[in-house]
Amino acid sequence: RRYYKETDGLKLDFGIYMKALESACDIEAELVGKPAKVFFQSALADMGVEPHQAIMIGDDLVNDVGGAQQCGMKAVQVRTGKYRPSDEKHPTVKADGYVNNLAEAVDRNLKHLDD
C-alpha cells in the first residue's frame, strides 16, 4: 500500500519505505499482504472456502478488489475510505459492484441468499 486514511487525511504507508529499502539493499522484498495472491489464498484456505464462494468488500480498488479478483473471487468496492469516483473508470481493474457502505454490502448479500 502507498497510503492509508486517518481522520486528518491520507498518510504514507509502509510500501513506500519498503521500496526505499529494496533500492538501498539491492534486493526485492516478498510481499505477503494485499494485493499478493498468496494473501488471499491463505485467508480462503484458513476459512475452508473456495474463491467462487467468497466476496471481497473493500475500499481500495487495486489492493482489495484487484487482489481478490486475481484469485477468482468476486469483489465489491465500498464508496468510503480510499474510494475515489475515478476508481469506477480505472483502465484495468473493474469492481464487480459498488456499494455506499459496508452495511449496504451485507444487506445485498443477505438478500441474495434469500433468492
TrEMBL record:
InterPro entries: HAD-like_sf, HAD_sf. It comes from the Eukaryota. One of its GO terms (cellular component) is cytosol. One of its GO terms (molecular function) is phosphatase activity. This is Phospholysine phosphohistidine inorganic pyrophosphate phosphatase-like isoform X1. It comes from Acipenser oxyrinchus oxyrinchus. The gene is Lhpp.
